[in-house]
């Protein structure tokens, strides 16, 4: 995906400015490919907010589309669905277009890098996968697909709750019209999204559907559990496309000669079946079945692994990882020898 901004670019807003007569700018939080995000204060109630801006002169405008998606999500749900950030305000100044949203915590890419081995435990990986599927189910129910599902677009709560928020809807698109009719499938489409996590169909120029969002979840789940994807160091679309088609991410060799989790295998098999079904563009993915195959958070066999899962804190800038890769491997091996569990049986039927 092209990028127009870098971290060295001047801030589009200054600390102390007030947006919409209500939101006081504090400082820049981060720079995305096409915009900047600031932390602000809602002067009416003292709540911290996130303010995303893009230049009115930018060749690619994404905020208007993102605002439409978030407004639609709120209208469809009657109130704001919990996995999607709440939109407070939007508009334009003389130089920028802006949107004001709920402020959330660190994203999943940051959290993974904070672990000892840049890798989540099996338990955490499955929990994250389940939350991602649930978040996308909420979005898809509003008639939109995301089209850029990747770890930075999932953030944890600031309140210390074990929740994921889906963010950044600039690339999102309707798959269902306002009147409820399905949009017709296009014969060919240009590439959208992030090369590392894009679906095989996206690489091949096919029109994307709800299943393509879930393909990205599959790649993320494998990356979280294994540490990295084989194409991590390549951003060339054709090279990555071939690797995705040729490499079996669930081969026992990749999982230290143990079975890959059944839930990830179930997701992969569902996606492969959808690719061979011409009508899958119009079908709803089996979200419930996918989530039912995922590990139960409360299952007693997972108490040891639970100690290794990362824990959320209430601070935006302080979230720690509570496990190491060496300890994780020791516990898994000990569990296998004692009959407590195997990697392929970390699932509640």
UniProtKB/TrEMBL annotation:
A GO term for molecular function: ATP binding
Matching Pfam families, A to Z?
Pkinase
InterPro entries per record: CK1_Ser-Thr_kinase, Kinase-like_dom_sf, Prot_kinase_dom
Which top-rank group of organisms is this from?
Eukaryota
Q: Which residues form the Protein kinase domain?
A: 23-302
Matching entries from SUPFAM superfamilies are given as: Protein kinase-like (PK-like)
Specify the protein name: Protein kinase domain-containing protein
Origin organism is Pristionchus fissidentatus
**In the record, what lineage is assigned to the organism producing the protein?**
Eukaryota, Metazoa, Ecdysozoa, Nematoda, Chromadorea
């Amino acid at each position: 995906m092209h990028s127009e901004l870098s971290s060295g670019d001047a801030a589009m807003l200054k600390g102390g400015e007030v947006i919409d007569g209500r939101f006081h700018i504090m400082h820049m939080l981060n720079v995305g490919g096409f915009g900047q995000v600031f932390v602000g204060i809602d002067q009416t109630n003292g709540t911290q907010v996130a303010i995303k801006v893009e230049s009115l002169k930018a060749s690619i405008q994404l905020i208007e589309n993102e605002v439409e998606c978030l407004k639609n999500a709120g209208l469809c749900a009657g109130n704001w669905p919990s996995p999607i950030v709440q939109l407070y305000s939007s508009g334009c100044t003389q130089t920028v277009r802006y949107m004001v949203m709920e402020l959330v915590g660190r994203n999943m890419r940051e959290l993974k890098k904070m672990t000892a081995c840049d890798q989540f435990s099996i338990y955490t990986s499955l929990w994250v996968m389940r939350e991602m599927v649930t978040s996308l189910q909420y979005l898809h129910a509003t008639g939109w697909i995301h089209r850029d599902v990747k770890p930075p677009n999932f953030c944890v709560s600031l309140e210390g709750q074990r929740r994921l928020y889906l963010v950044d809807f600039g690339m999102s698109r309707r798959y269902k019209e306002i009147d409820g009719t399905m949009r017709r499938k296009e014969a060919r489409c240009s590439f959208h999204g992030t090369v590392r996590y894009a679906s095989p169909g996206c690489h091949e120029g096919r029109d994307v559907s709800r299943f393509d969002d879930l393909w990205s979840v599959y790649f993320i789940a494998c990356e979280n559990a294994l540490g990295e994807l084989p194409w991590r160091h390549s951003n060339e679309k054709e090279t990555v496309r071939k690797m995705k088609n040729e490499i079996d991410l669930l081969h026992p060799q990749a999982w230290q000669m143990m079975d890959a989790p059944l839930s990830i295998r179930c997701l992969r098999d569902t996606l492969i079946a959808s690719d061979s079904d011409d009508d899958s563009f119009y079908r709803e993915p089996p979200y419930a079945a996918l989530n039912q195959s995922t590990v139960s958070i409360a299952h007693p066999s997972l108490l040891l692994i639970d100690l290794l899962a990362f824990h959320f804190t209430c601070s935006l800038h302080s979230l720690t990882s509570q496990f190491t890769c060496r300890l994780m491997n020791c516990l898994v091996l000990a569990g296998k020898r004692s009959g407590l569990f195997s990697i392929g049986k970390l699932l509640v039927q």
